Amino acid sequence: MNDTFLKACRGEKTDYTPIWMMRQAGRYLPEYQKVRGNISFLDLCKNPELCVEVTLQPVGILGMDAAILFSDILIPIEAMGARLEFHEGQGPLLPDRIRTGAAVDRLVVPDPEATMPFVMETIRLLRRELKVPLIGFAGAPFTCATYIIEGGSSKTFWETKKLMYTQPEVFHRLMAKISRTTLLYLLAQARAGAQALQLFDSWAGILAPCDFERFALPYVQEIIAGLQQTGLPIIYFANNGATLLDLSVSSGADVIGLDWRINIGEAVRRVGRRAVQGNLDPFALLLPKDELRRRIQGILDGAQEAFGHIFNLGHGIHQFTPPEQARIAVEAVHELSCRRP
Ligand SMILES: Cc1c2[nH]c(c1CCC(=O)O)Cc1[nH]c(c(CCC(=O)O)c1C)Cc1[nH]c(c(CCC(=O)O)c1C)Cc1[nH]c(c(C)c1CCC(=O)O)C2
């Protein structure tokens, strides 16, 4: 069992810096494309045997030190009663566009075991196969709220901010319902065998710090407090979150995810006695090998004084990344971080 990742999360000494990549199971891998050729994305998410297969791919092919459950942050939103569709070549579509108090009241807080049994089954099956730790995950409430309110991805987040500023009571009611759902869902993942849990706050960075503090952070704190009973390391990743870093630390997470826009040495100083995860620009995987290795060395050097460091990209791996480049990065992190006596 390779538990380097879990040790780094807890700030324990490791022989080398562990690495995994956000969105490591996905379209850049021909092996994933082959599975996806025969099935829609949503049907894939609901098929435990195939989820196991694609979760294992990046671990086996690229040598990652952790696996992340193959699923999507929008799965529990569908379980709450908002319809979810994926159309080929487009982002997610949630046609119900929840924007009124009455619509929020119609959403339910689902029993995760009853409505998403395929997720827990995937976790149980994976634990029998894996030789590296398994990360479970969910979207953070604010990011989930943007998809529910906008009905999909957005450029301006007009409807989200309109609800937040003009009907704050409705917005908070929606956030409370998503948070309760997320906590129960992550507790179920922990019971099924997840060994660490990550909250993805992909859109936190569109908020002013004062709004993040008022409308988003309290819900993250509530979830993380509720997860303490699991004893599992909790990772909080706020994308575009350099300006929110001090607030992110107050989330209570054990590991603070960093995007690539911040210097990791500066982040380490601000984060203090918590592990950090990051933060190579996903597009830097396109660099020639020598330059890529220098970039990786720079991040390892910057994180030298970190309480713990898990190497990762600063956001998800891009779908057109050559897998060979990801493999070079994994090899470089392992080699360059190897502690020589
Ligand atoms: C915002 C978000 C979503 N999903 C997720 C986030 C947070 C992380 C981030 O900010 O990137 C999280 C996610 N989505 C997926 C995973 C699987 C685990 C992993 O390998 O990291 C994880 C952890 C698979 C996926 N989720 C999705 C794919 C592609 C689906 C396909 O095969 O066509 C995968 C592999 C679909 C998805 N799902 C979502 C979007 C916006 C899209 C479309 C992306 C696009 O079209 O480029 C919502």
Automatic annotation (TrEMBL):
Source superkingdom: Bacteria
EC number(s) reported in the record: 4.1.1.37
Residues engaged in binding substrate: R23, Q24, A25, G26, R27, D72, Y147, S202, H315
Chief place of localization: cytoplasm
Pathway field: Porphyrin-containing compound metabolism; protoporphyrin-IX biosynthesis; coproporphyrinogen-III from 5-aminolevulinate: step 4/4
InterPro entries xref list: UROD/MetE-like_sf (IPR038071), Uroporphyrinogen_deCO2ase_HemE (IPR006361), Uroporphyrinogen_deCOase (IPR000257)
GO biological process: protoporphyrinogen IX biosynthetic process
Cellular component GO terms, alphabetical: cytosol
Residue ranges occupied by any Uroporphyrinogen decarboxylase (URO-D) domain in the UniProt entry: 18-27
GO molecular function, one term: uroporphyrinogen decarboxylase activity
Signal peptide: none
One Pfam family, short name: URO-D
Family, similarity comment: Belongs to the uroporphyrinogen decarboxylase family.
Assembly and oligomerization: Homodimer.
Function in brief: Catalyzes the decarboxylation of four acetate groups of uroporphyrinogen-III to yield coproporphyrinogen-III.
Name by which UniProt lists this protein: Uroporphyrinogen decarboxylase
